[in-house]
């Protein structure tokens, strides 16, 4: 009786050992994490279609986006757990258990910071 594998590994690289197969699987896993970060940046940080043709201006915009992304990631640090929990509870409250436990902290942090900005916008800036 022939057993069918539980999953297939699609690659053009030769797989000569189990360790080699796991290296490829873990590489794809890491690539998927990078893809989800790009998806977040494109949708939430508004770089879906950049209309800047000058390379230096585009580079500056991307540096600003990466700085914002790094700031959001820094809010996920263990040392800022109290601040993050307070911000999420006060400004992006979720009552449904599934919504509260969903693994989308960066999306919720963006919503939280947007709500804070709208509530406490500096008066010197135009509305």
Architecture overview:
With about 130 residues, the protein is mostly helical. The protein contains five helices and no strands. It is extended. The protein folds into two domains: about 15-70; about 75-125, no CATH class. The model has no long low-confidence stretch (mean pLDDT about 80).
Task: Give a brief outline of the structure.
With 127 residues, this protein is an all-alpha fold.
Describe the sheet with the most strands: none
Q: Give the end-to-end Cα distance, rounded to a whole number of Å.
A: 72 Å
Structural class: mainly alpha
Question: Unreliable segments (pLDDT under 50, ≥5 consecutive)?
Answer: none
Number of strands: 0
Question: What portion of the residues fall into strands of 2 or more residues?
Answer: under 5%
Q: Name the shape in a single word.
A: extended
Kindly give the count of domains: 2
* Helix fraction by DSSP (H/I, runs of at least 4): 55-70%
Query: What gyration radius follows from the Cα positions, in whole Å?
Result: 21 Å
């Amino acid at each position: 009786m022939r057993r069918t594998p539980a999953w297939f590994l699609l690659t053009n690289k030769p797989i000569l050992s189990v360790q080699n197969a796991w290296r490829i699987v873990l590489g794809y896993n890491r690539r998927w994490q990078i893809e989800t970060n790009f998806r977040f940046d494109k949708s939430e940080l508004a770089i879906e279609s950049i209309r800047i043709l000058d390379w230096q201006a585009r580079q500056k915009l991307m540096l600003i986006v990466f700085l914002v992304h790094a700031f959001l990631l820094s809010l996920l640090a263990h040392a800022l757990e109290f601040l993050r929990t307070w911000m999420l509870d006060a400004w992006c409250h979720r009552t449904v258990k599934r919504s509260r436990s969903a693994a989308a902290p960066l999306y919720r942090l963006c919503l939280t910071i947007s709500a804070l900005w709208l509530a406490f916008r500096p008066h010197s800036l135009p509305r």
